[in-house]
Amino acid sequence: MLTELWALGAWDLADLIRRGEASCREVIEAHLRRIDDVNPRVNAITVTSGEESLAAAAAADEARARGEAVGPLCGVPMTIKENIDVEGSATTMGIVALREARAPADAPPIAELRSAGAIPIGRTNMPEFGMRWHTDNALHGPTVNPWSAEHTPGGSSGGEAAAVATGMSPLGIGNDGAGSLRWPAQCCGVSALKPSLGRVAQVGERVSGPTPFAFQLLGVHGPIARHVRDLRLAFGHMCGRPGGDPWHAPVALHGPPLPAPVRVCVVTYLDGAETAPEVAAALTRAAAILADAGYLVEEGRAPALARASEIYTQIMSNHGRVHREQPPVETIASPGFVRFWEVYEPIWTRAAGEQAFDPMMERASIARLWSAWMSRTPLVLAPIRTRPAFRVGSDLDPRWLADWPDTMRMTVAVNLLGLPSVAVPVGTAGALPQAVQIIGPRFREDLCLDAAEVVEASAGALTPIDPR
């Protein structure tokens, strides 16, 4: 059994420990061995906390032996992206200059997960600043997609997605400001939950500096796992602590039931962005699964989608920095990132479109349009990106990168409006996994998770896998 513990999900591991069929120490040891075996091939985990995690596991086993109450995640390992504070660990954000920037305390969701019994076993890789859709940096180097070394694992939570996909971790904690949970999930064949704005607290002052307004509004922490029920389990233990976050909203995790049949709008047309055949096929399969399960599935278009993408870009451009003046990027980032930003900056500038008089006012107008649309069709089935994982190095080619903002319109619209979304795999095409996202009204993660579980039950989980 010990050699197979790493292949189990968070819910299954918690259940085994609860029933006394595995100890916390056995679970942690199994995952540390898996990391030793696999991580040299994928470079997803940057730091392991072996001694600390084994000590925490021993303490949990002793508490259980004494008959003390333990949390619902007792003994479940978790990995955490390097831009989320973990007490005593460096919040590097992929930057060499921050490699010793150790956090004095856990970020609120990490503290909650620890209180529920989860045990941190390592930190995971990310691109510098979390501002690239491929995971590489000067501090730790590139993460390898376990499905195909020639293709990106995604970003910016690419280390988390690769770690979970290969069984090194059953539960990863990352964040999503422009698809940074959902895009790596698509690339690596795992599931991810981007919660609603205000659900999961972010602290205003981190060890790496204050959080810019754009990231307060557009970004949120969330879980990555191999199974949707593991997302639900983790999410339920990430939402309670406000942590000084003024956006935090203590809303019930489950909303009122909707009258059957629940409507689902399939969005295949993204205001002109071309959808690759394999991505379209994934949408078709997911739509058929939901229809067979009793959902009322119909095709439609998202309102003001292109303008939502432009307003997102304007807010991120104008309010995504901590300081008025930034050091030259070439002094703090890798040559790869410097090249990426040289190529992407003019594309990013064009993607902002016509400057709004007040982007937040226009955001509110778009939000009202979406609210009216989703009051009739509460779930939206859509691509994460309209194309699959790209070949490594493609995002350094200006011709290839030119239409990137168009291919990500639906994903960044979700960030702009603070909506929840679940990424769920639906199969493979060639050597690569394919996934879709299920979007719901704000604070209705439960509806998204319900539908994603239906898709997963039919399509099946794609991971864990050994690197190929």
- Assembly type of the chains comes to single chain
The N- and C-terminal alpha carbons lie at a distance of 24 Å
CATH architectural category = Alpha-Beta Complex
Proportion in helices: 25-40%
Task: Report the β-strand fraction as a percent range.
Answer: 5-15%
Number of domains: 1
- At the first level of CATH, the class is Alpha Beta
Keywords for this structure?
468 residues, alpha/beta, Amidase signature (AS) enzymes, eleven-stranded mixed β-sheet, two-stranded antiparallel ribbon, 16 helices, 13 strands, 38% helix, globular
Q: Can you give a write-up of this model?
A:
The mean pLDDT is about 95. The protein has helices at about 10-20, 25-40, 50-65, 110-115, 160-165, 180-190, 215-220, 230-235, 275-290, 305-320, 335-350, 360-375, 400, 405, 410-415, 445-460; strands at about 45-50, 75-80, 120-125, 170-175, 190-195, 205, 210, 220-225, 265, 295-300, 380, 420-430, 430-440. Helix 2 packs antiparallel against helix 3 (about 50-65), helix 5 (about 160-165) runs parallel beside helix 6 (about 180-190) and helix 10 packs across helix 15 (about 410-415). It has 16 helices and 13 strands. The protein has a single domain (about 1-460), classed as Amidase signature (AS) domain (Amidase signature (AS) enzymes). The strands form 2 sheets. An 11-stranded mixed beta sheet has the order 1-3-2-4-8-5-12-13-11-9-10, with helices on both faces. The protein has a two-stranded antiparallel ribbon with strand order 6-7. It is α/β, with parallel strands linked by helices and about 475 residues long. It comes from Planotetraspora mira. InterPro entries: Amidase (IPR000120), Amidase_CS (IPR020556), Amidase_dom (IPR023631), AS_sf (IPR036928). GO terms for molecular function: catalytic activity. This is Amidase. Belongs to the amidase family.
